[in-house]
Structures are given as C-alpha cells and as structure tokens.
Amino acid sequence: MGVTSAALGETPLHPPEAAAALGSTLVVAPHPDDESLGCGGTIALLRRLGLPVRVLVVSDGTRSHPNSRRYPPAALRALREAEARAALAVLGVAPAAVTFLGLKDGAVPFEGDADFADALGRCRRYLAQLEPVRTVVLPWRRDPHPDHRAVWNLMHRASDGFTAFARSLEYPIWLWEQGERFHRPMEGEVCIWRLAIGPVLALKRAAVAAHRSQTSDLIDDDPEGFRLTPETLTHFERPWECYLEAPCNPNAPR
C-alpha cells in the first residue's frame, strides 16, 4: 500500500482523546524539526493530558546550511537546538525532557560504519537512564532520507527490537514526496492509522514555525541551504497525523 493522500483517506481516523492510549511516550527525531513535523500534534495532545513526553534528537542538524559563514557548524548546531527547545516548549515539553545526541547530520551510522558501535552505545545509555516509557515514536524504517533509516535501525538495535516498550509507532516524513516503491510499507507489514489533532493544530503550526532556520530566510548566506517549501509543509498542516504500527493491530490506538 502506498502512503498517498487517497490511500490515507481510507485509513482509520481516531479522535484526539485516543492519544491517551499511548501513555508515557518517547519521541525520536533524526533532525531538529522532525519531532514537530511528524508528531507535533500528538506531542501537544499528550501534554494536554498530562502524560510524560521525552524527546531524543539524534543528529546535530548542521548539514542544512553547510556553506553559511554567519552560521558555521557550531553556531548552526546551537541555533537548531534552540529552535527545537522553543518548538517543544510550544507543545508543552520542558527543556529537561529534551536530549540532543549530537551525531553528525547526514552521517548517522549504519552497521559496518566505523562509528556505529559508539553511536549504539550512546543510544543504549540514553535508554537505560529513562523512566519507564510505554510508547516509542520513531521515523519510518524505510524513509527516503538515510538518516531516518539509520535512526530507526540504531534505536531498534539499542532497545533489542523495541521490547522495552509496549508499543512502537513510526511516522513518515519524506515518504510523502520522495518515496519510491521500495520505501513504501509492504502489504501486512504495518497498520496505518491517523490521529486527529484539530484541537492542537495551531500549536503544531507554531512549533514548526519555530524552526526558523528551516522555514524562513533566516540564514540567507548559503545558496545551497535547505528550506522546507510551502508544498512540503502542506503535508504537515493536515488536521491529523499518520502512524505506521507493527505488529499490525487494526484497532489501534488501544
């Protein structure tokens, strides 16, 4: 099944209060901004319910504007971390609940890479110090962006196949625009469902806008710099968010 707008319109749509079934939640973002784009509404719903949310941002985000003189890597890393904290504060997440792993943007390692063992150890240490968490929310395992795939794999290995969590959900980011057939979920691999976020959609939009380096001309001295286009942002302005869940449970959330 392809993740297309037409196909998504046929997937189960659960009301905002169904977020309560997720319980305490860990959100894992490959880059600063993925947490707001992929599941900002869900985060806001969970926090409105008083449920704990922890956020792990894996890469430093410094590849977005590699040629900027005003924002060399150290300054860009600090800026993107500040933007993520501001975005998550809008959604109700305190700074103490946000952790930045600081792996190199564009080079999150896979097995066989020289720095994979170190990254795996850092993920394991992070998970070991967490309070018990019911649900982990991750990037889609075959997202077109290699960092997203690498982050899913790192967390899968670090948590021994997500056995530490009652549920693991995955959110698509670049599948909307860049996904080829082999990126898409296979039949029976996952259940696809949506969570309505209408009551907190304005908060999600504000959180996305807080990532000014990615959504505006704040950094204007790098002609090769990355910027989320209005067309891309329309995928994340819908009054619902999409999740892929395995093992497949047609009645999720539960």
What does the model show?
InterPro entries: GlcNAc_PI_deacetylase-related (IPR003737), LmbE-like_dom_sf (IPR024078). Pfam families: PIG-L. This is Glr3049 protein. One of its GO terms (molecular function) is hydrolase activity, acting on carbon-nitrogen (but not peptide) bonds, in linear amides. This protein is globular. The protein has helices at 5-8, 34-48, 73-91, 116-128, 146-158, 175-178, 201-209, 212-215, 230-233; strands at 13-14, 25-29, 53-59, 98-103, 135-139, 167-171, 191-196, 240-245. It has a single domain, classed as Rossmann fold, CATH 3.40.50. With 254 residues, the protein is an alpha/beta fold. The protein has an 8-stranded mixed beta sheet with strand order 1-7-8-6-5-2-3-4, sandwiched between helices. Helices cover 33% and strands 17% of the residues. Helix 3 (73-91) runs antiparallel to helix 7 (201-209). Helix 2 links the parallel strand 2 (25-29) and strand 3 (53-59). The protein has 9 helices and 8 strands.
